[in-house]
Amino acid sequence: MHEDLITIGELAARTRLSLKALRFYGNRGLLPPARVDPRTGFRRYGQAQVERAHRIALLRATGMPLARIAAVLDSNGEESVRLLDTYWREQESAHASRRDAVGYARGVLTGRSSTMYEIAERDVPEQKVLFTQRHVTAADLPGFLAEASDLLFSHLRQAGACLSGPLFAVYHGLVSEDSDGPVEVCAPTQNAVGPAGRIGVRIEPAHREAYTALAKRHEVYPAMAAAHDAVGAWLAEHGYARSASNREVYYPNWANAEPGEQVVDVAVPFRPGSGV
Predict the structure, then answer these.
(1) 204 near 226, Cβ under 8 Å?
(2) What is the Cα–Cα distance from 116 to 250, expressed in whole angstroms?
(3) Nearest-angstrom CA–CA distance, 161 and 191
(4) In 44, 92, 205, 244, which residue has its Cα 20 to 30 A from 185's Cα atom?
């Protein structure tokens, strides 16, 4: 018997969620029906699912993605609060970073020179790198960087090799919400390592580059995009010509740094000349 089950319409009335939203949450595994009639397809829900639906709506109001909501709801009390706090700290950091990007954009639009980014120069020697490449948009970029790094590190370990310099990503095209690169993640090594599957091996030429160092709080897309633009503008102001694609050079503390710690350099190789 299922006297304690309610219909999807009753669940909608109790939670003020639309039928469309409830079906969507169910199809995503976040709020699956307690029972589906095999003949009619009617969905029935348990009483405890009313509270779960309330909590889904509450967390969605914070902007939390569905996958992270599932992790919060499937955790115990203290752990669920920790996950929520972690998410909100990330959002606050991202908001602060976007504020910086807006400040930079405001200076560009008004024609004022921005002093937000301190640009320096350095020489980079020739190095052999393992690399893997993919077309990705801004939304998919963090996942690809993590996946590519794991793939390259795994290949190095299997070959008994090690890094000879910091991991870096080369942006052969613009990455944004609408543009998909491509992006090439590179792992320098001096050891004898061959290509395998999606991993290639090439020589990165020696070059001189302009760069700016960014803190952990600036790792979100808007701030990174502004930094790339700022380095390019600096090259133009100094009459330098871009000689290779933009890149990001990641410090070893990238994954666990505090918000104010420097974790990445945005760099652009150049040669003397006019235009970029």
Answers:
(1) no
(2) 20
(3) 6
(4) 92
Q: What share of the chain is helix, strand, coil (3-state, %, to 5)?
A: 40, 25, 35
**Token reading at 231:** 């380095």
Amino acid at 246: N
| CA distance to 18, 83, 135, 184, per residue, from 173 (Å) | 41, 35, 9, 10
Confidence of residue 276 (pLDDT cuts 50, 70, 90): very low
Q: What is the mean pLDDT of the chain?
A: 88
Reading the block at residue 236, the tokens are: 């133009």
State CA 46 to chain mean position distance: 37
Question: Which residue did the predictor score with more confidence, 112 or 85?
Answer: 85
**Beta-sheet pairing, 43-45 with 6-7:** antiparallel
In this prediction, residue 222 carries a pLDDT of: 77
Confidence of residue 92 (pLDDT cuts 50, 70, 90): confident
pLDDT digits (tens, 9 = 90+) for 185-237: 999 999 999 999 999 999 999 999 999 999 887 777 778 888 898 999 899 88
Q: Is the CB of residue 117 less than 8 Å from the CB of residue 231?
A: yes
Helices 48-60 and 8-15 sit at what angle, rounded to 10 degrees? 50
Give whole-number Cα distances, 23 to 15, 16, 17, 27, 248, in Å: 13, 14, 10, 6, 42
Beta-sheet pairing, 168-171 with 207-215: unpaired
Nearest to 244 by CA among 233, 232, 254, 229: 232
Specify the pTM.
0.69
